[in-house]
Amino acid sequence: MTTDANAAATPGRRPRGRPGHDREAVLRTAIDLFIRRGFDATSISDLAAELGVTKSAVYHHFPSKEALLSAALDEALEGLSAAVEAASEATDGERSSVRLRTTVEAAVHILAGNLPAVTLLLRVRGNSAVERAAMERRRHIDDRLAALVRQAAAEGDLRGDVDPDVISRLIFGMVNSLVDWYRPGGPLPADALAATISSVLFEGLRPQPDAAAHVAAYGDDPR
Amino acid sequence: MTTDANAAATPGRRPRGRPGHDREAVLRTAIDLFIRRGFDATSISDLAAELGVTKSAVYHHFPSKEALLSAALDEALEGLSAAVEAASEATDGERSSVRLRTTVEAAVHILAGNLPAVTLLLRVRGNSAVERAAMERRRHIDDRLAALVRQAAAEGDLRGDVDPDVISRLIFGMVNSLVDWYRPGGPLPADALAATISSVLFEGLRPQPDAAAHVAAYGDDPR
Fold first, then answer.
1. Site from A199, A206, A214 to mutate, B interface, most B CB atoms within 10 angstroms
2. Taking every annotated instance into account, which residue ranges of this chain make up the domain HTH tetR-type (chains A, B) (predicted)?
């Protein structure tokens, strides 16, 4: 979105192409193509054509298609890591349920603000070393959230009739699905979005005396 | 999973290959490969190799890769349509919130029972006529659910501080995310899964006097 100071500061090593073409624009367009057509189906030639530049101009900024994917996934992962870290520091010493809720809202902000990169992150399936490394880093972030869920459940602040790991999955499910429908600049600002998701989730997840009986009754259904 | 009576009843038109190879096994393996490697990256040769048969044996059952994708998407769509229809008939005359909840639970059952086909359905991006037709049918099913949400909200049975279309997205998000984590045969039977998701969602979505004030306070956050 912003112009890239590094690109301007680095003299073009490849005189052909358009070395001054904004690194950021190359990355944004690559992410867009990877999402629309898939990573495998997108070539550096496609990317250059979409940008209206030569392949050299693309290679000036990124040595390979994998480097573009890696940069996109790094962006999403670094945003999520930083948000989880900041939420953790901001709520140091508070109850786990407060820390969890703050972390979920921070994650929603990152998703809403980095939709294309996060969309790519959520779609990787481990088909390459770059993808597997990203999945490993994502798992590490997810594990921190899952640990908070287990602590909040152990402290009695989450309903006891649902396994804490299932609770984590339900939270991830609702939060991650944002990438399929949320569009920034629409009627729902990111702050309202974060507050809405957090409210719906944590009202649904609070300890509820009736819930155990209800779930048990359904669970006994012999179908 | 079951053997295919049609395959046995249809004499092999292609003497080479193994025409008797189970149509159902071909479809299951194709769905598995499409999910693991992606549709574009999977060839009929890959599929035949995975099955240990000739390409002719595959073509005996399906004329093309697109026909395999179409059969997989049909399976998911027909399951979902039938479930939504059955839930609608079973709750005819009841409040919209009851009809909605029954429909959501029926959808969870279909997802849990048809995970691979539904996974493919949720991944299609409209890259071909087959995919676009499936997306159109899926939209039709989603629209029925969204209409129930709007009716239940209008009847005062869902919280009034969240736009009904956002509520629909949150429901779809949590339900559809099953394909990323739920595994049949594990500790959580499909009935308990449906009851859990339904309970967490609809407890979180009930009219809540405090919720409006809470969301408004967060929405005013100037970030």
1. A199
2. 20-80
A-B C-beta contacts closer than 8 Å? 145
The Cα of A8 is separated from the nearest Cα of chain B by a number of Å equal to 30
Backbone phi and psi for residue A20, each to the nearest 5 degrees, phi listed first: -75, -5
Provide, as residue numbers in chain B, all residues whose Cβ is less than 8 Å from the Cβ of A125.
Answer: 36, 38
Using a CB-CB distance cutoff of 8 angstroms, which residues of chain A are in contact with residue B217? 195
Residue B108 lies in a domain: yes
Structural domain boundaries, residue B147: 70-207
Cα separation of B107 and B110, whole Å? 5
Number of structural domains, chain B? 2
- CA separation, residue B211 to residues A195, B161, B200, B208 (Å): 10, 7, 16, 5
The ipTM of this complex is: 0.83
Task: Please report, in tens digits, the pLDDT of each residue of chain A (223 residues total).
Answer: 344 444 444 444 444 444 455 999 999 999 999 999 889 889 999 999 999 999 999 999 999 999 999 999 999 999 999 999 999 999 999 999 999 999 999 999 999 999 999 999 999 988 899 999 999 999 999 999 999 999 999 999 999 999 999 999 999 999 999 999 999 999 999 999 999 999 999 999 999 775 444 444 444 443 3
Closest Cα partner for A163 from B157, B182, B6? B182
Residues B80 and B59 in one domain: no
Distance from CA of A64 to the nearest CA of B (A): 20
Asked if B131 and B125 touch (Cβ cutoff 8 Å), the reply is: yes
Asked if residue B120 and residue B16 are part of one domain, the reply reads: no
Cβ of A205 and B208 within 8 Å? no
Query: Are both B134 and B172 inside the same structural domain?
Result: yes
Same domain assignment for residues A136 and A203: yes
What's the CATH code of the domain at A43? Answer: 1.10.10.60
- Indicate which CATH number applies to the domain containing A103: 1.10.357.10
